[in-house]
Design goal:
- There is one protein chain.
- With about 400 residues, the protein is α/β, with parallel strands linked by helices.
- The protein folds into two domains: about 5-30 and about 285-390, Lyase, Ornithine Decarboxylase, Chain A, domain 1; about 35-275, TIM Barrel.
- Helices cover about 25% and strands about 25% of the residues.
- The chain is built from ten helices and 17 strands.
- It has helices at about 35-50, 65-70, 80-90, 105-115, 125-140, 175-185, 205-220, 255-265, 280, 315-320; strands spanning about 30, 55, 75-80, 100, 120-125, 145-150, 170-175, 190-195, 230-235, 270-275, 285-295, 300-305, 325, 335-340, 350-355, 365, 390.
- The strands form two sheets. Strands 1, 11, 12, 13, 14, 15, 16 and 17 form an eight-stranded mixed β-sheet that branches. Strands 2-3-4-5-6-8-9-10 form an eight-stranded parallel β-barrel, surrounded by six helices.
- Strand 8 (about 190-195), helix 7 and strand 9 form a beta-alpha-beta unit.
- Helix 3 (about 80-90) runs parallel beside helix 4 and helix 4 (about 105-115) crosses helix 5.
- The chain binds ligand LLP.
- Ligand LLP binds near residues 161, 237 and 280.
Length: about 400
């Protein structure tokens, strides 16, 4: 079984057709490259119908085995740190298809973005724009910028992954946007490319996207983006996936998603429309494979204690998210369990009161839909070893 410690960035071991779970070093991330390819095929085909460009959000998963494949589909990259920009370029995403967002870019990160001639910096405040202008002047190189607007559209998702409301730190508020655009339009050291939006993540209804499209139409006109030379419209990411039924519904509804924008968006045809998809491209191709260390009798409950914990999958502790869990090595009658990790935190719980085939020490469990925001959010807490990954 090709087990690749995550610190080794270029996997050299051949792919395995059928994993032998009993031999697997656990916990580990297991990625199904065939499913990733199928997802990328469908997403690209769907976006191409409307001449939309997809930028892959590296924050979802920066494992080179995945990013290399994704970049081969002609997608751009969406980065949120200097290291992500450098990694995207190293993997082979063209600089002119790399965008860089984030509310707290450091000077050196801005310098890197300018030096590497990326497509644009998504600026999130007037304060950041002033610093970017100064850096650009010092480097004698105009900075391409898109202004991230906080559009006040409710994403109807978990509070911690909603980004487009007044209370969120992201983007420029509508009341300040005119001033920010005027500053960007007037400076010789800033090249205003267009507008950027991102309302949140794991959005499973199309309604917020439809609202976003209408808000964008309004703003493009009232902010006179054509007069200002706007050629780029970046609508962010956010398309959700099915955590309840990952096997029955493994591919996000890309046609419906892009279709909503194609139907509702009204911007001039020379404006290039871009999306920053993370979760919807990679979530379902990844699982965490974990070994049962103990089954423990509790008071009115049975615990299954796994060798994976919140260090490998932080989402349940952070967002109360629920990931589907299966026992890959037992077909015994079902029982009710709480599945918990080994970390010294009461929030280190993957699932409460779920039904699994009777489980005992040594069994192997799969935690599904862990291709996004799992390996990339790995923690070193409790001095845990870094989990590796396996490709099938
Ligand atoms: N663009 C921007 C500006 C973003 O902030 C994000 C995600 C994306 C694109 C990609 O969004 P996606 O297509 O993946 O929804 N750790 C959380 C999710 C945080 C999302 C952060 N921003 C989770 O595990 O649910």
């Amino acid at each position: 079984m090709p087990y690749i410690p995550s610190s080794i960035t270029q996997p050299k071991t051949p792919l395995q057709a059928m994993p032998d779970y009993s031999q697997m070093q656990t916990p580990c991330y297991l990625y199904d490259l065939a499913l990733l390819r199928e997802t990328l095929d469908i997403a690209s085909r769907s976006a191409r119908q409307y001449n939309y460009q997809i930028h892959y959000a590296l924050k979802a998963n920066n494992n080179p085995a995945l990013t290399t494949l994704i970049s081969s589909y002609g997608m751009g990259a969406d980065c949120v740190s200097g290291n992500e920009v450098a990694e995207a370029l190293r993997i082979g995403f063209p600089a002119k298809e790399v965008v860089f967002a984030g509310v707290g870019k450091s000077d050196s990160e801005i310098q890197l973005a300018l030096k590497e001639d990326i497509l644009c910096i998504n600026c999130e405040s007037l304060e950041e724009l002033i610093v970017t202008e100064e850096i650009a002047r010092n480097m004698q190189k105009a900075a391409p910028v898109a202004i991230r607007i906080n559009p006040g559209v409710e994403a109807k998702t978990h509070k911690y992954i909603t980004t487009g409301l007044d209370e969120n730190k992201f983007g420029v508020h509508l009341s300040q946007i005119q001033e920010v655009l005027d500053f960007a339009s007037q400076s010789p050291w800033l090249k205003l490319m267009g507008l950027h939006f991102h309302i949140g993540s794991q959005i499973t209804s199309m309604e917020p996207f439809e609202k976003l499209a209408h808000r964008v139409n309004e703003l493009w006109t009232t902010l006179e983006m054509d007069k200002r030379g706007g050629i780029l419209l970046n609508l962010g990411g956010g398309l959700g996936v099915n955590y309840q039924d990952p096997t029955g519904d493994p591919i996000a509804p890309f046609d419906e998603y892009f279709g909503v924008f194609a139907k509702n968006l009204k911007v001039p045809s020379h404006v290039k429309v871009r999306f920053e998809l993370g979760r919807s491209l990679v979530a379902q191709c990844g699982k965490i494979i974990t070994r049962v260390l103990y089954t423990k009798k509790g008071i009115n409950r049975d615990f299954v204690i796994t060798d994976a914990g919140m260090t490998e999958l932080m989402r349940p502790a952070l967002y109360q998210s629920k990931h589907h869990i299966t026992n890959l090595t037992s077909e015994l009658p079902e029982q009710i369990y709480d599945v918990v990790g080994p970390i010294c935190e009461s929030s280190d719980v993957f699932a409460k009161d779920i039904s699994l085939p009777s489980t005992s020490r040594g069994h192997i469990l799969a935690i599904h839909t862990c291709g996004a925001y799992s390996e990339s959010m790995m923690l070193h807490y409790n001095m845990r070893d870094k989990a590796g990954f396996v490709l099938v």
